[in-house]
Amino acid sequence: xxxxxxxxxxxxxxxxxxxxxxxxxxxxxxxxxxxxxxxxxxxxxxxxxxxxxxxxxxxxxxxxxxxxxxxxxxxxxxxxxxxxxxxxxxxxxxxxxxxxxxxxxxxxxxxxxxxxxxxxxxxxxxxxxxxxxxxxxxxxxxxxxxxxxxxxxxxxxxxxxxxxxxxxxxxxxxxxxxxxxxxxxxxxxxxxxxxxxxxxxxxxxxxxxxxxxxxxxxxx
Length: 220
Description:
About 35% of the residues lie in helices and about 25% in strands. The protein is built from 8 helices and 9 strands.
């Protein structure tokens, strides 16, 4: 669980001011997975579909945090109600939503507010990075927080909305979910103004329409 709040000292504040975030290089993935296995309670994961890994560093390049964004959950009743899209729209537009699948702060150094700063800087570039890598942006980001492990403060501080709890299913493959009976708290955030309005519109904006065009039509 989160520790009691304290303000960073001058040295820690200097580190916060110099935090950098960047996309992980392909040859760094083994190191990232090793650190996730060591320091994340869920360990590393083999993400499905489109994904981006980030690493946060200090000014000297020391790794401070690792983040993974990958495919959004296929069905989330609270999220789907919050977005306001229809059951037919959801599978065609789901790739415009991403899930913050992993986020770990490495244990040395331990600095107050580091998680908040790192997440803020990643969110500022996430949609543009997705556009550059996959040819389309992401409009909404979601994540799950285990209430037995964390308080979710890093998300609420960055303007995420808590929608409720999940039904206790976990993804084990692209289209395969397993019941684990450990509901998670669901947090969501728009990455651009009117993101939900775009996703619930009858027709997507031209710059987003290619996403739907790539989805095979459902059998009738």
